[in-house]
Amino acid sequence: MSKMIRLLAALVACATLALPALAQQAWPAKPVKIIVPFAAGGPADIYARALGEKLQAALGQPFVIEDRPGGGAIAGTDAVAKSAPDGYTLLMMSNTHTVNESLIKEKPYSLMRDLVPIAPVNYSDLVMVVHPSVPANTLAEFIALAKAKPGALNYASSGPGTPYHMAGELFKALAGVDIVHVPYKGSSGARTDILGGQVQMMFDAITTMAPNVQAGKLRALGTSGKTRSSVLPEVPTIAEAGVPGYEAVIWLGMMAPAGTPKPIVDRLNREITRIVNTPEMKQAWASQGAVPMAMTPDEFTAFLRADMEKWAHVVKVSGARADQ
């Protein structure tokens, strides 16, 4: 009997050790869903589709993109947080999520408790644009106009806590101007209304806004990175145009429900890192103004925590609120 017990114990131990390897080999055995908690047509949607196509080719199962905008990315994110941690529901996230941790206290989830970091994807500079009807051809002229008419100018964003919102709040704080925030349910609506002149200014990703600038539909006053964008090289950075120290970007990453097996997280990390660093992807994204990012899951976790601290400071200093 004792020999039988020892044999059974050994078999259980071996099976336990083999589980991670089996999970890694078996996954994915069916389609994987990537939930994008933002509107269709924005950077998160565009890059989720590009990444999903490459993951499908690499892993042999469809990667289905599902846009679930609403509540400043909270609705779609909560759906992922409440999904089974089996590797079949993933989240395409951005710095909206790290901002929301301090901007929106009452949420049905906690980012670092209910989700596990997988990998970053890329980052893009933003561009500050105004409608042609705005009597300002340079950033300095816009700042002078805003100071002469406090509260008279407005800027659109894709919703509270999004990179476009926080880029505007950071600009207000550093430039010392009073501009009214007009939040939309997604970037598409904000983009449509600034093109139509219903709102006067907007921060948007260069990847999606550059064609409108190049077509003369909107006027670019500055880009948000440390150096000029290769996509809009004639446009100065906001820092060099009159707001020293200004820098804001939009970055994207992938997370999964907490409890997702580590072998699956590690495999996704390896595949995403490989894909974003292929010459084909680098070249395609460079032409759009996007730069690939690569980190291990642990490095991405540290990055997320640091970004949360950064934006908590900006929220505090700017006085930004989710209802503004």
Summary, kept brief:
This protein is α/β, with parallel strands linked by helices and 324 residues long. The protein has helices at residues 2-26, 43-59, 74-81, 95-103, 111-114, 139-148, 163-175, 187-196, 206-214, 238-241, 262-276, 279-286, 297-318; strands at 32-36, 63-67, 89-94, 115-130, 154-157, 180-183, 201-205, 219-223, 249-257, 290-292. The chain has 2 domains: 15-123 and 251-318, D-Maltodextrin-Binding Protein, domain 2 (3-Layer(aba) Sandwich); 125-241, Periplasmic binding protein-like II (D-Maltodextrin-Binding Protein, domain 2, 3-Layer(aba) Sandwich), CATH 3.40.190.10.
Describe the structure.
Strands 1, 2, 3, 4, 5, 6, 7, 8, 9 and 10 form a 10-stranded mixed beta sheet that branches. The chain is globular, with a radius of gyration of 22 Å. It contains 13 helices and 10 strands. α2 packs across α11 (262-276) and α4 (95-103) packs across α13. With 324 residues, it is an alpha/beta fold. The chain has helices at residues 2-26, 43-59, 74-81, 95-103, 111-114, 139-148, 163-175, 187-196, 206-214, 238-241, 262-276, 279-286, 297-318, and strands spanning 32-36, 63-67, 89-94, 115-130, 154-157, 180-183, 201-205, 219-223, 249-257, 290-292. The termini are far apart. The protein has 2 domains: 15-123 and 251-318, D-Maltodextrin-Binding Protein, domain 2 (3-Layer(aba) Sandwich); 125-241, D-Maltodextrin-Binding Protein, domain 2 (3-Layer(aba) Sandwich). The model is unreliable at 18-24 (pLDDT under 50).
